[in-house]
Amino acid sequence: MRLPFPQFEITNRHHNHFAEVIETSTSEFLAQCLEPEDLSFPVMPPFGSWVTAIDEESNNRVYGVVYHATTSPIDSVHRARALGLSLEELREQQPQIFAMLKTEFKAAIVGFEKTSGGLNGSTPQRGQIYQYIPPRPPQIHQAVYRCESEEVVYFSESLDFLATLLQVINAPVDSLVAATIREIYQMRNCDRSWLIEAGRSISVLLKDDYDRLRMILKQIHP
């Protein structure tokens, strides 16, 4: 029997609020995507995409980069099995399937922003950016939001966060760094000067590991 996953009413939810923290630690957090209103699977956030959550105690806006995502049965004992049906056929013949699966993702924390306001308003106030692990991560059951392009552009004025990404554990780190740079490059409207500076920063960080540097630069190819 499935226990209902607590959610806000759609009318009260910020348009970028799509997940909720279900496990948290100093350097990363695990979040579960909220269920869509229709018969469909929650949209899995892309590898290397940016998310943010407010730590309500400190009022810090914590930024993370998605490095792992899964869709699996809520019942951990029984695995999903192949049914040979299209999504439309699933909706017609097996609509309960959509209520039996969950989508979760892990985000590596890369920094935080000191701010005086949350994300409930349409235009959040910008604060001071710190590109290191915050004093505390977002707590259990706090909302997770997709980052707007403007937020990521503002955060990525400095490139110190690349050093944090290169130290993420249990992740395809080289691919993660490349995906993150590609994502920011697109959000910055293909700013070539920023891309060159990012490449230089990685070159300095990996000056003693040419093979890793070459593989990362090869994967960026915007």
TrEMBL record:
Occurrences of domain Helicase HerA barrel (ranges): 19-112
InterPro entries per the UniProt record, alphabetical: HerA_barrel_dom
Xref: Pfam families: HAS-barrel
Highest taxon above the source species: Bacteria
Protein name: Helicase HerA barrel domain-containing protein
Lineage summary: Bacteria, Bacillati, Cyanobacteriota, Cyanophyceae, Oscillatoriophycideae
